[in-house]
């Protein structure tokens, strides 16, 4: 993709509220893009800076997204980079956030 295509995609996600970032002490440490389809949020991209707790960052992203879209019940994602042999994962938000 061209730089312009990438920028346009990010701007669309910002406009629809499906782009998120995590800052710690003002430093950008993670970004994510996702699509919402009914009750499922599909994570498209997730980048976390080395040295940061991935589980903590993921929980923050999920909580932020759930706050914006309270009807979401599941998160889905592919682990293509680390584990391309695995199928699509679909996980309950309540289970991920340990909410009863």
Question: Which structural category do the helix and sheet elements fall into?
Answer: alpha+beta
Largest sheet, in brief, is:
5 strands, mixed
Q: Over the alpha carbons, how many angstroms does the gyration radius reach?
A: 14 Å
Q: What proportion of the residues is helical, as a percent range?
A: 25-40%
Residue windows where pLDDT falls under 50 for at least 5 positions: none
Look at the structure and give the mean pLDDT.
Answer: 88
- Following the backbone from N to C, one meets helices and strands in this order, namely HEEEHEEH
* Count of extended strands: 5
Number of helices: 3
Major sheet strand order: 1-2-3-4-5
Which descriptor suits the 3D outline? Answer: globular
Strand content: 25-35%
In whole angstroms, the N-to-C terminal distance is 42 Å
List key phrases describing it:
globular, 5 strands, 34% strand, 100 residues, single chain, five-stranded mixed sheet, alpha+beta
How would you describe this protein?
The protein is α+β, with helices and mostly antiparallel strands and 100 residues long. The protein is built from three helices and five strands. The protein has a five-stranded mixed sheet.
Short account of what is shown:
This protein has 100 residues and is an alpha+beta fold. The chain has 3 helices and 5 strands, in the order αβββαββα.
Topology:
Layout: H1 3-16, E1 19-24, E2 27-37, E3 40-48, H2 54-68, E4 74-77, E5 89-92, H3 93-97
Parallel strand pairs: 3-4
Antiparallel strand pairs: 1-2, 2-3, 4-5
